[in-house]
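Form 7-S
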Amino acid sequence: MKAKNKGARCDECPLREAEYVPPEPHETDIAAVGNFPTDHAVREGRPFVGPAAMELHRSLANCGVRREMVHWTTAVLCKPPENDMKRFKAVLQKRNRAINKENTQRKKDGKAVIPVIPSPEECCAPRLQAELRSFPHILAFGTAAAKATIHRSASIMGLRGAPTEVERDGRTIRIMPCLHPAQVMREKRWTHVFRSD
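Output:
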């Protein structure tokens, strides 16, 4: 059932057969949200592990924050093929364009339309919103995580640099969008920016 009982739309998700990594909960008021699980996360069965996560844990330790002081999760709980969500979503968009084209003809013929395939982020959004409801402080690592928590469409470069406050259920939530540690591993010039965030 994966995350279906937590509100996710797993039955509709194009990643419903993919490898699943559950959140790692801790009693805390800080949640960290990544984009999606990696091969390392799948192997260990928990998010934010592997070489990129070690950079994150070192940076948090410099601030006096240990792993057990943070609730760990991802915007999408299932791993895309080859750890490449961008490519997976490009294929999905191509399929949806074909469906929309077919639906144009189906409408002309008076036939029922075929529903387009939702994105993994759309399918996991209800679960993520419910999961994060009680956290007043959220660290969002990467563009997908930032979009999923702030609900604004922009790149991580346009969002990072300062906390964003959002009102939800009559409460103020502070969200800190940050570069993803995997990006920092690939592009070392961003290390000081990541650590300062």
